[in-house]
Amino acid sequence: MTGRRSVYHGCRVLLGALFLAAGISKGRDVTTFAGEIAAYRLLPYALNYLLAATLPYVEVLAGGLLLLGRNVRGAALLTALLTVVFIGAILSAMLRGLEIDCGCFGGAAVLPLWVALVRDVGILALAHFTYHLQGTQPS
After folding, report:
1. How far is residue 133's CA from residue 128's CA, in Å, rounded to a whole number?
2. Is residue 18 part of a domain?
3. What is the pLDDT of residues 3-33, one digit of tens each?
4. Which residue, 9, 62, 116, 128, shows the most beta carbons closer than 10 Å to its own?
5. Can you tell me the distance from the alpha carbon of 43 to that of 26, in angstroms, rounded to the nearest whole number?
């Protein structure tokens, strides 16, 4: 396996596992996750619950597709877009001085927001490499 293919597979599997784990952990307690979303003070009350009820399924779908190697570019693009939104929400909370749990893994990983931000930048890099290196695979 060439170096590019190894990097591709490593990024794809790690990105898929992260999103699958995040979706499963958030989906286990939608009410708590809705509260974590509400703490950001970005959405109307009712939308916090709608997002909490749907986002875990989207993350599980994207993670599963990446792990299975199906529709990889679409799943990588979806994870990148989600991660950009997550980064924006974290930056917004930081700039407003909120001291909240990021809600990133359903309360399983309570981190300072700056650590979550650095981690999300790394996740965005994984999505970037997965998307752009996908073409290194034989058809």
Report:
1. 8
2. yes
3. 889 999 999 999 999 999 999 999 999 999 9
4. 62
5. 18
